[in-house]
Amino acid sequence: MMKVSYPLIKPKYYKSLILDLGNFIRHPINELSIKKSTKHKIYDTIGLFFIKVVFSIMVASLLQLVYEPENQTSVSMSERFGSFPLLLIGGMILPIFEEITFRLSLKFRPIYLALTSGTLTYYVITKAIFKSRLSMVDETFWYRIITGFMILLIVYVISSRRFIRQDLQQFWKKHFKLIYYLSCISFAWLHIFNFELNLINLLLLPILTLPQLFSATIAGYTRVAFGFKYPVLLHMITNSLFLSLTLLPLN
């Protein structure tokens, strides 16, 4: 009889995952994992999801004992959308958008860099300049869209030029550790816009965004080691789970 393995129920499996993740965080390498099959990549992605959920719950529980600011983004989306649109936008569309913004160009290609530049522009001007929401269709929406698209085109045209593309490829290869760390920190710290921008929240920024920082390290690892679809899947599952919990009738 063929022996069936279920790694997701084995404690040693999670220990191995944590060690692999820790080694990558200390020494990021911009290479795909060629030793793992698609099945094992899926196993690892699910295992990392469980690890991320446990870590997030632990951090959230500790924060609740001391300080618990309101997540204004979650409240805004819940007020503007019904159950299905909320899960569609928050659980599928926004994860794809954020993974393009923060993880796609961990692997360098002109089109990847252009897409990241365009979506990051939309993200920053939406949050920092117009104090709006990514999914908000208001009087600034088309300005944000057009500005992001123009940046996308400019970056693509410039980075596609042969000598610039070659220089950027060398830069990515030589400074990947810096690029990976910056992607993690920017993803985490830009989530401060989910909260009210008062002095206390700004001082506590590294703590309030600690779950996002941990998520970014995992997403960056899966993007580089397994491919772009894996952090997208991980992000979708995470958002869909937490959004689904907010829809439960707890009263």
From TrEMBL:
Sorted alphabetically, the keyword list is:
Membrane, Transmembrane, Transmembrane helix
- TM stretches of this protein: 42-63, 83-104, 111-129, 141-158, 178-193, 199-220, 232-250
Q: Does the keyword Membrane apply?
A: yes
Keyword Ribonucleoprotein on entry: no
Question: Where on the tree of life does the source sit, at the highest rank?
Answer: Bacteria
Q: What is this protein called?
A: CPBP family intramembrane metalloprotease
Tell me the organism: Croceitalea marina
